[in-house]
Amino acid sequence: MDGWQVMEQASELARRGEAFALATVVWRQGPSSGQLGARAIITASGELHGFIGGACAEPSVIRQAREVIAEGKPRLLLLGQSGQFGDAIPEGRTVVPISCQSEGALEVYIEPVVPAPHLVVVGRSPMTQALADLARVLGWRADLLDWTEFSAGSADERSMVVVATQGHGDEEAAERAVAARPAYLGVVGSHRRGAALLGYLADRGVPADQLDRIRVPAGLDLGRTTHAEIAVSILAELVQLRASGRIPGAAAVTAGDQAGQCAAGPAAAGAAADVIDPVCGMTVMPGAGGRPLRHDGVTYHFCCARCRSEFESNPASYAKKETRC
Question: How many beta carbons lie within 10 A of that of residue 51, not counting itself?
Fold first, then answer.
């Protein structure tokens, strides 16, 4: 996958609403397999698409990229041998020592790409059209669907759903929306109509904890308002809740979702944790490519055959150095 194919893949991931990081080589010191301007995509689960460097740089970049996705902040890396850059490290750089035999070095800029919020508006009216249009002005992805078009598959756990069907399929639309378990579910209607709808859902077996998450009526209380102003009140509520972190999952990625954060643990993203080569200290991806070696009940991984051989020749010197994030 070359640079332009990487950008096409990035566009596709963004369209699907998936979070990822884009890594770009901005400086190199030969000999190094990474070339100036080379790009790669790293997903939240640690998959890499593209090429930014060989076995020395790749595991470190993947680990750093997953942290960038979790934090939502870009990072500029200097990758090379310990002591190679001396004390003259410009502010804002993160130095990542790698034990590469080629003695090359790379500077890699990693930027997070966080998908736009996803809003699903169910119903057909001047208000729903205004709400969808306003959301798009903010750069959000907004789908406007009639209740007959809407299904549980129209949203996911990161979506925000607003049901504004005005008596046309309220019950069906609300039940389908609950099944999608979105980050936010609001219903446009009076308190009386809302109580009746919640009662219907309860009779249908919707658990109480799910009913409690339904906001009805949706939007900030602005008093008597026009259709356009109702749309503004709903969007204002969504912006307020997202900014305060009170819409769980509405942000594309949180730090706790990433195995790249030590505190979250490897189970957070369903992926194996990175390991450290006990001989040279490099970050190594576990698996067959990490040249696994079992010693005293512990599996160790290595960046290269030389490190594995060094460990085998004198395991007592290295076994205690093996660490996991």
Answer: 20
